[in-house]
Amino acid sequence: MVRAGDAARAADFEDMTCFLIVEAQGSDPLPPEADRLRFLQSLKRTGKPVW
Which CA distances in Å does 1 have to 21, 39, 41? Predict the structure, then answer.
């Protein structure tokens, strides 16, 4: 479940969509928004997924 302040990104594949979410655990603060977005945008699909 994505809460307010969390950051999420979808990665589309031929037969499924994966959601990547940055969220805090418990009362820990989230990293700054710029760091969350930089991390999610740095992820790249480099081939067919192996499940």
Answer: 9, 19, 20
